[in-house]
Amino acid sequence: MLQSILGTEITLTSLLIVLGSAMILGICTAVVFSFKSNMSRSLTLSLAVIPVVVAAVIMLVNGNIGTGVAVAGAFTLVRYRSVPGSAREIASIFIAMALGLASGLGYIGVAVILFALVAILVIALTFLNLGGNTESKELRITLPENMDYNGLFDDIFRENHIDAVIKRVRLTNMGTLFEITYHISFPGETLSKSVIDAIRVRNGNLNIVYGVITEKDSYCSL
Known about the structure:
Structural class: alpha+beta
């Protein structure tokens, strides 16, 4: 059951079994990781396709070390052309590649067992909502350029049990305004109106933007 179905040569039957298995596992992986998640359509499609592509590449390499090194280099280049995603998205891509690797080597039973274990783990942790009450969000606050932003909202964050870290500071509007980007986490699902109102009093009712994290950078530039 856990042995490779591939022999010394690739036959049409083994090719169809491997690629078909990889396709089914890829679709199932996309379904599992999109469960109760706001995963994008493009990533869902990618998770369904990646195992098939990886399996086909592994079958074509077929033990050739030189070709394997070239393929590894190609995958490395693709990595630097992609936009960083969340930890869940990165994990889903690694799982999809592992399933494609196992399928391409002919270990269909191993791929099925791996998928089953990962699916059970992902669904169980999703239902348990592990870490769900402290998910990081992004808060952007605009301030006049003559206002010191260091510690300006610390008492508001502390009173409302909000953990806030400044991730970016930039000047806007020809240098007359600061835009401060915080990554915040707090109990509950959304930021309360009372917190927004308290911030509005401090920043002179300038722009406040709150939502999911859209940028993964952690640098500070002026």
